[in-house]
Specification:
The structure is a homotrimer. By secondary structure, chain A is an alpha+beta fold. In chain A, 18% of the residues lie in helices and 30% in strands. Chain A is built from 5 helices and 15 strands. In chain A, strands 7, 8, 9, 10, 11, 12, 13, 14 and 15 form a 9-stranded mixed β-sheet that branches. A 6-stranded mixed β-sheet of chain A has the order 2-1-3-5-4-6, sandwiched between helices. In chain A, helix 1 runs parallel beside helix 4.
Chain lengths: 261, 261, 261
Amino acid sequence: MSIITLTTDFGAGSHYAAAMKGVILSICPAATIVDVTHEVPPQDIRHAALLLDNAAEWFPPETIHVAVVDPGVGTDRAIVYARIGQQQFIAPDNGVLSRLAARRPPTKLIRLADPAYWLKQVSTTFHGRDIMAPVAAYLASGLDPDRLGPPLEQLTSLDWPEATQHPNRIDGAVIEIDSFGNLITNLTGEMLAGRPTDRRACVVCNIFETWGIYHAYAAQPNGTLVAVIGSAGRLELALVGDNAARRLGIGVGSPVTLAWE
Amino acid sequence: MSIITLTTDFGAGSHYAAAMKGVILSICPAATIVDVTHEVPPQDIRHAALLLDNAAEWFPPETIHVAVVDPGVGTDRAIVYARIGQQQFIAPDNGVLSRLAARRPPTKLIRLADPAYWLKQVSTTFHGRDIMAPVAAYLASGLDPDRLGPPLEQLTSLDWPEATQHPNRIDGAVIEIDSFGNLITNLTGEMLAGRPTDRRACVVCNIFETWGIYHAYAAQPNGTLVAVIGSAGRLELALVGDNAARRLGIGVGSPVTLAWE
Amino acid sequence: MSIITLTTDFGAGSHYAAAMKGVILSICPAATIVDVTHEVPPQDIRHAALLLDNAAEWFPPETIHVAVVDPGVGTDRAIVYARIGQQQFIAPDNGVLSRLAARRPPTKLIRLADPAYWLKQVSTTFHGRDIMAPVAAYLASGLDPDRLGPPLEQLTSLDWPEATQHPNRIDGAVIEIDSFGNLITNLTGEMLAGRPTDRRACVVCNIFETWGIYHAYAAQPNGTLVAVIGSAGRLELALVGDNAARRLGIGVGSPVTLAWE
């Protein structure tokens, strides 16, 4: 049994994801298809890169993750096969895999080049359906990825700013707003090792601040700004029972500092 | 073949549901996963309770329904396994199962306590992924639910107001707005047995009224307020070809009276 | 293995699609269910007809496509089984199949009449769950469609305006806005055969115009209006890196002319 996941910016109302699923099931009827999301904001490669990085590791080894956020479709941007850890990826080479690759270097990179594994007619505007879906389906059916094309030396990379550690503080930023409006930062739980997490720790984001790092959102009353280590191991700020991003007007890129007295 | 359904407030744009699916498929590759919805309004336990009550009964016996609307994650609220009718449920014990349980008492209730069936590392903010998903997958693989932990005496209950019957009228309320904007009430078809449903029956909701109970929305022209017995056996009000909730400004909790002349 | 697809206007937040899936899996546990979309605008039959026409052809032969956009539920409108090309369809006979049928006449048309293949209790407001889902599941289990009811002579048809070709121009219209805001027209790639596609070709939509037909959206800088032949073989207009429909205020029905100097 092979699993193929889909991460796209197609929107739930379009027929595009369904067309990809039809192509996949036409080639590999036994594939299990899982939607990661089709709600990546249109053409937002960084957003998709973070989503993939959050989701992919939870799938069984050998899962094939297809990411179609592809503003350059029809230009000479490459489409790649990448093996990262025990997971496989098919995506345009536009940086959408660079968050994953920053954490763990790919052990195989191939540029999709052999049209034997594509649809016979390839449009210039929908390579998700015409190239990526059939390639994923052939892989799910057991195709050796080396047959897909020549090796690629390096993935296109986006810049992923890291938090910087100082003696008495860590400076970072909000890198993601989740669906609850929680502010997810690039400060990780590892960076806090050995540091106090009680009320001596102060987290500042824009003009807002909160003391202490808690184990649960509900550790504080509704309406309180709390800091927790979230489910991806990153420091996040939440407004208990509310949407912090919307209520406080904070977006991706806002500075976050964790300081100790 | 085992079916696992998911009902959450994660939103279609997040990676959270995908992470749960990855965990499930890692443990039980043959599971059939069905999304009930991920669009429960954030932390709206009552909304999720109604959804589950509407959806669960249509699934095959032994289906495992996982509901993750969990504002108390990381606190000492319990996570439970419940057997209600022929369906199985995994959910935080916060009332999300209390609508189902109000109609039919659970025949088994267990408090999840044995970490042998959880992920090895359990976060404090995402028990859907770390506890509920693996438990559901082990159940789908044949695990005896008695292994999950000790019996629980009683589910946490929310108050579900019932319509009150009087000699010439029934007083109730709107309990749900469906995706078409139809106003679904707590008056049931059974309450109407033996009563006239022609134009002697008058339904009043806020300042709006309509006469007669019809068999089809389209029994009246577009723009008409009609009362029908909906697909869950409850009286509902619809604005033909339009969205009644939005157009008339009616929400959950609005009073509804059905009266006979 | 049988595939059943669902195209509805239920919205992702409702339990209606889940109820249909529960019914299907109760009858045919081995069915593979694929969501085309549940985000058809409420009761928008034409929108659903276009979606189905775009999606269905990509699925394996014998796939069963169920379309539930059914404002007339409970009235005497028929529910039909149609075989079009190698695909099968179950839908209310309200025009939702007429776009597909305009391109390729159905080779079998049956009016659903035998309640042996429906749920035992049929509501008057949700035939998707009570009639269409079980019929699809029985078909997926191998039922001969001739058992479903008597032949139907003709599908209800909606008017699908065609582009008109003149010596030096083609007059058409926007027939669909996709999820990126691209304006998809009823001018097809075939109509352009042998005509220049370089800057001698001018496309005008409302007060906006662009020259040349390109192979990729990204062939022009961000913010440029470009014409391409899209993935369904139709001329479309896109605003590079942006949402043309929203930014230019253009909707379905807007006139489009392609002219050659």
